[in-house]
């Protein structure tokens, strides 16, 4: 099929050969679905969700899909992946079994359930491959419509590569922006807000995106009449159709069982998107779902007899076979022979995948049994050990959990025996060898890992003057955009006015509106723009205007961006920088600091909380040399505060995971971050006046946190600890306390109870008084510290209240 992509015409015999090849792929995919369901029902696999009923339109999509293109789809697209040569039978079943070896399950090394597809954008060292020489699929996620925001960014990257000068050398990623981003979604999932937000944004941006809606009239058991107005997604999106009065979409509607019409539809869509950079919506309707939604239930429960009969007749594979026979592409006997041969191939592929999965575990089982039998022979607890050994031996198809459960339970029996050390060592070695199969690559393991970047201090000329913090930020962004032609920033009010705090003042005029641009009020797709563009070699900075608004995008950050390196076992990355601002404004909606929620939702993304603009600028400089995503939270009330202007703009770097001691002291360690530090510093001055000498530590980075364990060194000196945070009780302060007391073992050095001082549990009330009575004040800090010292030295520090 690849060989025919660029042919203008082929002979009838060649055409027949191509059609027969397509049919073989469709039948192979269908047989994998049927056999895959049986594997789940027999217990070899945990859950199955398959692409049966969608085979033929996916063949048509694959024909129009070229090297360099990207797919952003959902878990029904197995036929497409087979058609572009990125999924074979054995890999299909390896994914179903959850094989934790990337060589067997290249999609996710068993980290995602079957049906979640990806290609490798990176080599084994985390370096970019040439994406223009391969067909690409971004890694799927399960949340419905969660693939949509990323799709927008994948398409926008082509727009950038076609229109921005200076990045022509990025030939690994684009050839003149000719690449299309292909999206797929089920008709029911078009009900999600992420779908509509992305559709609107793509129409505004005019990006080369082809969006396929697989419409089988159901969302699990719920009919389209409960999902979509008029039960028809293309009907209600008619207003997006481009015309002489305005730009928009090309909308195509095609029956999902009509092989030649599907091919024509996808060829038309590809031509429009690739050459004109116009988005296209293809509504593929009259599709079926022969096995129902998934292995969790039967569709006979919710489809009536007429619907089931219609699905049997209009099954796309059956209709393709009928069309082939009517047009003399093959005889019934030839197709029957093909089908029988494919059944054998799928069965053999399934067996090979299962053997490759289970045989290594069986070898590990034998190794452990030998160790246990040797221990049992010398143990007074032999009878009990033999029982466990017998149970483990009886497991014909073990999993790794079976081995460790047995070994760890037997270890308890022999804790006072000579064999204990042998078994304990086996458990340790086995865990160290096995755990990375399930836990590696939360962050990058390449040489561009953010923790490898060393600090470069800001430098200052002798005559350096004070400037507004926003000027430090603006001038540093100027240096960044000059140094990195692939860097760009976008968000609400980023472009024309240079962001709401003018940290980008004049940047759009200097670098153009493709690199410094405004975006609509649509935080989820702003994040998606960044993810997709970062996956294609650009260095986007996605701005979310305020920290509160980040909640609109937290699902995309959590489910997609934060898990990308992990769920591909290090074979895809999106080094997106998310810029926002927060802390200490007055009112419910623009003063929240939900850091506890954020840091616990987005593990896999660095969370940086600089106290001033120089520190923030240093973080941006650092991150642009790494291959990892990060969130930078600037202090909203710091843009007009004075800072010295560094002379090495774009070069100084703030290290990740490194704390800074702002004031040394001997009586208590005060730990905080961001704007709250100014309150802490004021309180520390007042505490000195009453004889309390506090040490102040700026966390700077919540994820990662104090990698050098410097805070515990402070606690060892002061023997007291207070964490101050403007998040809610139990929010980020609880995380910080856990890191210090538990991870750093600071409890050993404490003479007083470690405490936290936080905001109230409610959102801050409006106005200055609302802020004062809702969030920590310098008086609160003073009195909290004083109370701790009173408990320790009541005579020296009499009770205040």
TrEMBL record:
Domain of life, source organism: Bacteria
Cofactor(s), by name: thiamine diphosphate
Pfam families membership: E1_dh, Transket_pyr, Transketolase_C
Keyword Metal-binding annotated: no
First-level EC class: oxidoreductase
Record EC number: 1.2.4.4
InterPro entries in the record: DH_E1, THDP-binding, Transketo_C/PFOR_II, Transketolase-like_Pyr-bd, Transketolase_C
Keyword annotations of the record: Oxidoreductase, Thiamine pyrophosphate
Free-text function comment from the UniProt entry: E1 component of the 2-oxoglutarate dehydrogenase (OGDH) complex which catalyzes the decarboxylation of 2-oxoglutarate, the first step in the conversion of 2-oxoglutarate to succinyl-CoA and CO(2).
Protein name according to UniProt: 3-methyl-2-oxobutanoate dehydrogenase (2-methylpropanoyl-transferring)
Organism: Flavobacterium suzhouense
